[in-house]
Amino acid sequence: MNQKINQHIAYLMKEKGVNLIISQAKDSNGFVIPHFILSENDIISSVIAINEMRNFFAYLNKQEIKSFKSIGIVCNYFGVKTFFQLKFENQLKDLELFLLIPTDDDFIEITSEKQAEDYLSGLKQSTILVDEELENVKKMSMEERWNYWMKTLELCTKCYACRAACPMCYCSSCTTECNIPQWIPVPASLHGIFEWHVMRAMHLAGRCTECDECVKVCPANIPLNILNKGLHNKISEAFSSDDSSIKYALNFFQPDEKVDFIK
Amino acid sequence: MSRIGVFICHCGENIASTVDCESVAKSASEIPGVSFSIDYKYMCSDPGQSKIKNAIIEHKLNGVVVAACSPRMHEPTFRKACAEAGLNPYLCEMANIREHCSWVHPKGEETTFKAFEILRMLVEKVKRNTKLLPIKVPVTKTAIVLGGGVAGIQAALDIANAGHKVLMIEKDPSIGGHMAMLSETFPTLDCSQCILTPRMVEVAQHPNITLYNYAELESLDGFIGNFKARIRLKAKSVDPKICTACGVCWSKCPVKKIPDEFNTGLSKRTAIYVPFPQAVPNKPVIDRTQCTYFVKNGKCGVCKKLCPASAIDFETKDEIIEVNAGAVVVATGFEIKHTDFFPEYGYGRYKDVIDGLQFERLASASGPTLGEIKRPSDGKVPETIVFIACAGSRDKAKGIEYCSKICCMYTAKHAMLYKHKFHEGKAYVFYIDIRANGKNYDEFVRRTIEEDDVNYIRGRVSRIYESNGKLIVKGVDTLLNAQPVEIEADMVVLATAIVANADSESVAQKLHIGYDKHHFLSEAHPKLRPVETNTGGIFLAGACQAPKDIPESVSQGSAAASKVTILFSNDELTREPQVAFVNRTFPPQYSSCTGCLLCIPVCPYKAIEKEEIKNRNGEVVKTVAYVNGGLCQGCGTCVAFCRNKSIDIQGFTNEQMFTEVMALNF
């Protein structure tokens, strides 16, 4: 990371009692990987463009990482979004977090939800996400779309890397592991694969932070993110998500909603 | 080991005519886990029930499936029979082979097969049923009655006479509601106030009723039997305990030009006022939005200087009190559309185009004209009056498709009263059709037409305009080949539509009850549960639910009161245990719930809260969701919503539903 961040990391570890920093580095293939800093000796400088950076918040849901209590994490815009969403879902409890977002030759530090909210609203992102692959799929007829997914998903081996990398997949026991009843068939049959990915997309509806970790880790290069992006756009169109009071459209209950469905 | 008994009912010919019950019983006996299976003509009859009871004891059954009608019909019957034989009633299920099968299919093998399949689903479910115990919740035997109109008054008196405490909340300075404003009542023409005011006084004097007038409900939390309400007591500026209602204050108040709400703006009132002479309680309040003291920062104060009892205190503030109650009767009433709603009838510009309620005040002996029909513009007695029924009602273009129900009757009454008071006058009524379907109602309308010589014209009025001091009413007579009709009238009375209160939506949200698209409050079932709401312990009375006349409002008030007294007849409330629960597992997981708590806002009954799981040292080890069984209605929204299936409904678990579906032979 740049010099300013590294200096700050050293300061945090020395003065603030931070005992773990999840930074980022490149491996010999140029792939961005997590770099765990447990002492000042671990600090290295590395150059990673901000849009190349990954979202390692999935680590923060793990018990062994949580036990560090006071943690710094180097991230970009998507990390801040993840932080905000996880806070909203009452995760990250009892954790003291320092988000370090690199800028050109400086950095921004975020420690609270308020700061995260200000940072996110300052960026004014468009509510409709644009993705080349999503546009391609949207142009297809229903039958073509079905064939597209059948063909793409056939490659899935249900390794669950998407689940492991996703910062929003933090359930201690996933529905896939539930066998009474068996919601998702165990074998990697097309039927079960399809059920798994559709279910995951539904579980992420309105919660996905669009960090695309699922795509980055997928060994079969399945464009899973377009399911989430498509859903995001649908929600934005239906609920106009520039209304910041809607934090999660699926469980948002509008006061003027008609309640006939309760009958 | 499952030892399930299967009982197939013929329901006379209802099931047996299309389903071969005997063969279903035979096939059922071969399902693994079924140890007893018979068919019988009427399972719900005494001998039928005895067969179930005997089989439970004889064959040591640990599950019962009755294949018969809808569980809505007889589930309680069969569960009770099982309980009498010592089996937990929730180990008994019904397979609906009547409504879902025999009634909707012709006789045949396929129909019999479907009946068997439905039965098999339930057998598989019962295998996974667990013993459930009813939930007991204590009951606070105090009822809140929201609104002091005739429906609320009736409900309050009935509950109070049954020996329970009642808290009545009325937003206006006096109770009485719309009925206190009416002149005479159809179909008997007895004076509205004369029959209502004794009831109003009874409310005020009843030892079991506490009346909070000039008050509003702030919030309602809790659940059936255990509500917590916050009531805002609006600052009256007059201490009702000291005030003797001598009247000096309102006769000397210098602000005299406020349109009087009670007289529908046909007269003026002062800023310190009693809405009408028979008001209950008969103590004045200061309208702070109009009073000079409050509008102009402490100038005036005449009433305070003159009050012989020193009852006036400008410093009093709104007070919020918290009360506990076991039930709520919502009787918040209605509003009417005013003449400004109708561009074709002058948008409220013409002074002599008035609404029905204004006519009531004109015809009332206690009204601004002391009962003489005088038109508002110049005080002359109108020689021709046109009454227009269905003004706004049953008009899709106006957004009000429904019938306001009382207009046909009160329009007939208005025309009759006018003819009684001014024999030479001419009265015309424009109507779509006449809906007079109450006791003695049609006779009343016939009397208006036949004896009192009121001209009924079937047709609608397209336009009203003013010309030479007359109101020209242009309409059409559809019984005369749709011939145009033009009447020069001195006054026009619009029977304007009844609409829900402007704040009905926010009231419904405060109470967590439903409302329809017109903002009328929703009953739990239009036929079988007309006074209950979907929220347990909250009942409806009067026109807050739909347009209603006085007898209907009163009967619904009594009906709601009887529901409340049934609820209060026990110290503890027994609830069906089919409620949601959050699972628990062994440590270190404690529960598969991740504590995201997104289920809290999704619950329509506010039944979910946060729970901290503690270890033996009292340290919090996990925060999870918790479902309050007293509040939960078992709707299952949270179950569908929970991502990792940590919530289940007792008796309808995911596992049971899944097994039912998987049991089907496709």
Summarize the structure.
With 263 residues, chain A is α/β, with parallel strands linked by helices. Chain A has helices spanning 3-15, 63-66, 77-88, 113-123, 132-139, 142-153, 161-165, 190-204, 213-217, 225-239; strands spanning 20-26, 32-37, 70-74, 96-102, 107-110.
Descriptive terms for the model:
heterodimer; A: 263 residues; alpha/beta; five-stranded mixed sheet; 10 helices; 38% helix; globular; B: 666 residues; Rossmann fold; FAD/NAD(P)-binding domain; 5 domains; five-stranded parallel sheet; 18 helices; 34 strands; 27% helix
What report would you give on this structure?
In chain A, helix 3 packs across helix 4. The longest helix of chain A has 15 residues. Chain A is of the alpha/beta class and 263 residues long. Chain A folds into two domains: 121 residues, no CATH class; 120 residues, no CATH class. A five-stranded mixed beta sheet of chain A has the order 2-1-3-4-5, sandwiched between helices. Chain A contains ten helices and five strands, in the order αββαβαββααααααα. Chain B has 666 residues and is an alpha/beta fold. Chain B has five domains: 124 residues, Rossmann fold; 166 residues, FAD/NAD(P)-binding domain; 59 residues, no CATH class; 165 residues, 3-Layer(bba) Sandwich (FAD/NAD(P)-binding domain), CATH 3.50.50.60; 71 residues, Alpha-Beta Plaits (2-Layer Sandwich), CATH 3.30.70. Chain B is 27% helix and 25% strand. In chain B, the strands form twelve sheets. Chain B has a five-stranded parallel beta sheet with strand order 10-7-6-18-29. In chain B, strands 20-27-21-22-23 form a five-stranded parallel beta sheet. A four-stranded parallel beta sheet of chain B has the order 2-1-3-4, sandwiched between helices. In chain B, helix 2 packs across helix 3 and helix 12 packs across helix 13. The two termini of chain B are 27 Å apart. The model of chain B has no long low-confidence stretch (mean pLDDT 94). Chains A and B meet through loops of A and helix 16 and helix 18 of B.
